[in-house]
Specification:
Structural class: alpha/beta
Number of strands: 16
Strand order of the largest sheet: 7-8-9-10-11
Strand content: 5-15%
Largest sheet: 5 strands, parallel
Distance between the termini: 102 Å
């Protein structure tokens, strides 16, 4: 009996020990679990109402660190990092859509310094080296989509900064390819339709969103820099077949003359909100408008070539008033890399250069918002897509939501937004998704957009068509500037690029290998020689064909001016850059898309005198489309800011 009593007591003691041990292990597991699971507590998933932790929006702070010691320097984005944040991010080949997705891979190749090995550039890159990059714009494509990682470089005032250990960003597949996010990108129609009136058949593939997975939750985030807000709809979707809008001709067309009439009407009758209370700044703008409308006549101004402008006298007076009057307040809100971190190189360089130069301007920027006429929201539409787009989600709602929350924050924190409904606020964005991302919540702001489609939300007279500039070298944005004189331009017309959208296949099918004077090609092969061949063709051509891609805008327009080639713009509903200021007929040819079959006939019929006038106009207007490290009078920074100022002058309503 005593034996059984002792055995029972011993078992109770051992049970207590095991219970204590198991309890200690359970407590330790719960305490240390957040360190083991990047998405939070796994125990919550055992509850029937628990939210799928993969899509928990509250814990998307990137924690990944990479010890990669030799970054792949293909297609590197040059990023200006003027603060302590140093991003050595990795991404897929830098791509840009010519609309919803005209792809470009800006590939870097071996430089002259001999610091490359096996096709990979070393981390030490001297920006002074004459490094060659394949794509002169988004359409001269290197179709090597197998490269997984490409470094996002830092350039601080022209100097590259790299780190061995940084967070890793993976460029989303849809963003890489630049394709419309609601479509399957695996099967695009490659053949041109028989006629422009024929719609291209929809893609045959079905879009499936991944049900799980950490593998599809998009890029990791720079630790402590920002928190992503991912798509709530990133679950399983049914297969969808839908016609891609960019693969079909527009249902309505606004002619160039109708655009001019619309601009004049919108300047006469503003639809902007009347300020809730009066301001001394408003009175200064109203006075500026009176002075612009009563500007003294300008005759033979040595700094301005009159035929380039709609009204050179009013432009000169408006520009002078901008220089002496305009003050801009830049919001400090918003975290890098989406805000305050400009990209200085590549296809999105326009928004980056403007941001950099605006932030560094002592002439226009004020620290006291009460002294400001305009308020700048400094975000990068490229970095917004790069950091927040959820790969394979086919959904950009979270990008728009991020900007919505930002605008709501500044509206709640400051009184200035609510005074005008945002009418005296402006943004500068070059990504093709920017019109969608800024819809509704930023609807009354002045938007400077590269994707300037008059039928898709762009408001003539308020918004600004931003020139899309391709910058190859952040330290020297003027590299390769200029071209042959008119007498040495022996090519009638030139085009080379990707077959994106419905229009370019028609152009190539109509003219490729059909006429020795019409140098019309598809994508050019990869390599330095091909890139230089592309540039030399533009420098030697009389006319450079600038057809639309998936969207209306293309960097070729400014590129043609850069190489002193007369641009031939073929893009229905496209509003040419800085439209409110320039007379585009003085230095370009604008043709409707239906005239492609008659392209040579139209160009040959232009009299020699008319061509010489156009060529002179291109050379004269060139200075207005150039970026400089230190802004110059009438350069692209000042011209962009002036158009924003000018449209505000004509949109303001007195209290």
């Amino acid at each position: 009996m005593e034996f059984y009593y002792r055995l029972h007591k011993f078992c109770q003691l051992e049970s207590r020990k095991w219970l204590i041990f198991v309890g200690a292990v359970a407590i330790a597991h719960l305490l240390f679990q957040p360190l083991l699971f990047p998405y939070g507590y796994a125990v919550r998933t055992l509850l029937p109402t628990a939210r799928d932790p993969v899509f928990d929006e509250s814990r998307m702070i990137g924690t990944g660190q990479s010890s990669i010691k030799s970054g792949v320097a293909r297609n590197a984005l040059a990023v200006d990092a003027s603060s302590e944040l140093k991003i050595g991010l990795f991404a897929q080949n830098e791509t840009k859509s010519d609309g919803a997705g005209d792809v470009s891979h800006v590939s870097e190749v071996k430089g002259h310094g001999g610091d490359t090995e096996n096709g990979l550039a070393s981390e030490e890159v001297n920006l002074d080296d004459d490094t060659a990059e394949l794509a002169v714009d988004r359409d001269v494509v290197d179709d090597d989509d197998d490269e997984d990682d490409v470094r996002l470089e830092n350039i601080v005032d022209g100097n590259e900064v790299t780190q061995e250990k940084d967070s890793v960003l993976e460029l989303p597949s849809e963003a890489k390819k630049g394709l419309p996010p609601v479509q399957d990108v695996t099967s695009k129609t490659s053949e041109a339709p028989a006629a422009l009136s024929q719609a291209v058949p929809p893609t045959t593939g079905a879009s499936h969103l991944k049900e799980s997975g950490a593998s599809s939750i998009g890029p990791a985030v720079v630790k402590g820099a920002f928190t992503t807000s991912r798509n709530n709809s990133a679950g399983v979707s049914n297969p969808v077949k839908k016609k891609i809008k960019a693969e079909m001709p527009p249902t309505s067309i606004t002619t160039f003359d109708e655009m001019n009439q619309l601009l004049a009407r919108n300047h006469r009758s503003s639809r902007a909100m009347r300020p809730r209370w009066s301001s001394e700044r408003d009175r200064e703008i109203l006075d500026a408008r009176w002075q612009i409308e009563n500007a003294p006549a300008v005759v033979n101004d040595p700094d301005l070539y009159a035929p380039l402008f709609r009204n050179v006298s009013q432009f000169k007076r408006s520009y002078e008033l901008m220089e002496h009057t305009l003050k801009v307040y830049i919001y400090k809100d918003g975290k890098k890399p989406i805000f305050h971190l400009p990209i200085m190189k590549g296809l999105y360089a326009s928004e980056g250069w403007f941001m950099k130069l605006m932030q560094g301007s002592k002439q226009f920027v004020v620290k006291d918002p009460r002294k400001a006429h305009l308020f700048y929201m400094p975000f990068s539409s490229r970095m917004l897509e790069y950091t927040l787009y959820v790969r394979n989600s086919h959904n950009r709602t979270n990008l728009r939501q991020h900007l919505k929350e930002y605008s709501e924050k500044i509206a709640a924190k400051y009184p200035f937004w609510n005074r005008t409904g945002g009418a005296d606020h402006f943004l500068v964005a070059c990504h093709d998704w920017a019109p969608y991302e800024t819809r509704h919540h930023m609807e009354h702001c002045i938007k400077a957009l590269c994707n300037a489609d008059v039928t898709v939300g762009f408001k003539l007279g308020r918004d600004v068509s931003l020139p899309e500039t391709y910058v190859r070298a952040a330290r020297n944005p003027l590299r390769d500037l200029g071209g042959k004189p008119p007498s040495q331009r022996n090519i009638l017309a030139f085009y080379a690029g990707g077959m994106h959208g419905y229009l370019r296949p028609i152009l190539v099918k109509q003219w490729k290998d059909k006429d020795p004077n019409m140098k019309i090609f598809g994508p050019m092969p990869a390599g330095v020689a091909s890139k230089m061949n592309y540039i030399q063709h533009m420098k030697r051509s009389k006319y450079c064909i600038c057809p639309k891609g998936y969207e209306v805008n293309s960097p070729r327009v400014v590129e043609a001016i850069f190489y002193e080639c007369v641009p031939v713009i073929i893009s229905d509903n496209f509003i040419p850059p800085l439209f409110e200021v320039f007379n585009w007929k003085a230095f370009s040819i604008i043709l409707p898309e239906k005239d492609i079959p008659n392209l040579k006939e139209i160009l040959v019929s232009i009299p020699a005198k008319r061509y010489m006038d156009l060529q002179l106009g291109v050379r004269k207007v060139q200075r207005h489309f150039l970026w400089h490290g230190r802004p110059l009078k009438y350069d692209l920074f000042h011209m962009t800011l002036h158009s924003i100022w000018y449209n505000r002058v004509y949109q303001i309503k007195p209290r």
